[in-house]
Design a protein that fits this description.
By secondary structure, this protein is an alpha+beta fold. The protein has one domain. It is built from two helices and five strands; from the N terminus they run αββββαβ. Helix 1 packs across helix 2. The N and C termini lie far apart (about 40 Å).
């Protein structure tokens, strides 16, 4: 078994398999959603000013995928989620994130 903050195989793609803890939550939610085809984590920006434990995710629909911009206590990571049904996927991600105690917001759609 690998690092608890690492995901690979299945719906996970890309070279960046290390995830910040809050991204693990939303990535696991996404991997369980039948409307999600693949999950591509981006770079981790670490060493940011602490948010006093405040974790949040911004969900943006860019037309072909969902961009999750996730802020953990002192780090930030974006995750691109490729989906077959945008509404089902966004609803599952938002509900799951909220139920896991993350603050959620929605970004403007970029088309």
């Amino acid at each position: 078994m690998g690092n608890k903050y690492s995901r690979s195989g299945g719906k996970f793609s890309g070279n960046h398999t290390t995830l910040v803890p809050a991204v693990c939550i939303v990535a696991d939610i996404a991997s369980e959603c039948s409307s999600v085809d693949s999950i591509s984590p981006g770079f981790i920006k670490a060493g940011l000013k602490s948010t006093s434990g405040q974790r949040r995710v911004k969900i943006t629909d860019d037309g072909s995928s969902v961009l999750l911009s996730v802020r953990d206590n002192a780090s930030h990571q974006e995750v691109r989620v490729y989906v077959s049904n945008m509404q089902v996927a966004k609803l599952a991600l938002a509900k799951g994130a909220r139920n896991a105690g993350l603050d959620i917001s929605f970004g403007r759609e970029k088309r």
